Amino acid sequence: MDLKNYFIHEWTTQAIRIFFLGQNYHEIQTPTLLPQIPVEPNLYPLKTIWNQKNFTFYLPTSPENSLKKLISQGIGNCFAIAKVFRDLEDIGPTHNLEFSMVEWYEMGKNYKDIAVTTKNLVLSVLHQVQKKLNQPQSNIITYQNKQINLGGDWYQSTLSDLFQKYANMDLSKNLTTQEIITTAASKGYNVDGVTTWEPLYTQIFINEIELKLPQDKPFLIFDYPAQTSSFCQKCPNSPGFNQRFEFYIGGMEIGNAYTESTDQKVLQKNFECEYLPSCAGIGLGIDRLAMLIADTNNIENVLYFPTAKLVLK
Fold it and tell me: Domain 4-146+271-311 class?
């Protein structure tokens, strides 16, 4: 049994912890048993029963809510390395039923600041793993026969510009269900029975944009439609869009970040939450980052106990 890839996952996790502790972030051990359903759009939690009390607990889809409770109490910059779980998502080469995530928040910062920290983190992790492997320090990795430069300037674009460039579509004029149904139908998508906006948006993005993103460097995509980013601050010059970014490396989505909304009316409308100070945060998939460094296209190869080996024998 070749353990190198599993060790790379181990070293990746260690390097993430070292990075944040070195900058005096508080590390939080967030709970795995939650008494309420995590309020995150389009994410579905697993649940378990405490039989002695006949009480239902939910497993976290991210450490977000727990971290925000502490942020609202003034803890300051913080991070959590946590196991998270998502139902109604199949397992596959880049998906496991339970996976490792690092989520962190920076006080007084916005999503552009988080993008800078993200790049610094990724490079720091890479260099520390290279040291463990007795490799010379380099900003370049080889992933599935492609060279990817993690240093220098990363690609950046707004989501709207990508829709215009690759899908020939003005996203700002396709923010309602009826608008995107009309556009999708004209492109040949099956719109029968579609009653919500997001499925068609997702299909167009995956089919016409995601696969065309250049992969020789990481790619930052900024400013997402408000309906996909309920808890984010609005983009001041782009009505209907919020301050959120996702980033891709080697064709895989690795993280999702945004500037937190501090509008109490908006927060109360979306979910019950104490007041948050000005801050921004991101969730980053540790397993996928380890996959990149290990140069493997299957998440099972960096996990000792992937779901597929436990239940699909």
Answer: alpha beta
3-state secondary structure the chain: CCCHHHHHHHHHHHHHHHHHHCCCCEECCCCCCECCCCCCCCCECCEEEECCCCEEEECCCCCHHHHHHHHHCCCCCEEEEEEEECECCCCECCECCEEEEEEEEEECCCHHHHHHHHHHHHHHHHHHHHHHCCCCCCCEEEECCEEEECCCCCEEEEHHHHHHHHHCCCHHHCCCHHHHHHHHHHCCCCCCCCCCCHHHHHHHHHHHCHHHCCCCCCEEEEEEEHHHCCCECECCCCCCEEEEEEEEECCEEEEEEEEECCCHHHHHHHCCCCCCCCEEEEEEEHHHHHHHHHCCCCHHHHCCCCHHHHHCC
pLDDT truncated to tens, each residue of the chain (313 aa)?
A: 679 999 999 999 999 999 999 999 999 999 999 998 876 667 789 999 999 999 999 999 999 999 999 999 999 999 999 999 998 778 899 999 999 999 999 999 999 999 999 999 999 999 999 999 999 999 999 999 999 999 999 999 999 999 999 999 999 999 999 999 999 999 999 999 999 999 999 999 999 999 999 999 999 999 999 888 777 889 988 889 999 999 999 999 999 998 877 655 554 444 444 578 999 999 999 999 999 999 999 999 999 999 988 886 5
- Nearest residue to 79 via CA among 90, 64, 93, 95: 64
Q: pTM for this one?
A: 0.92
Domain positions in the chain are 4-146+271-311
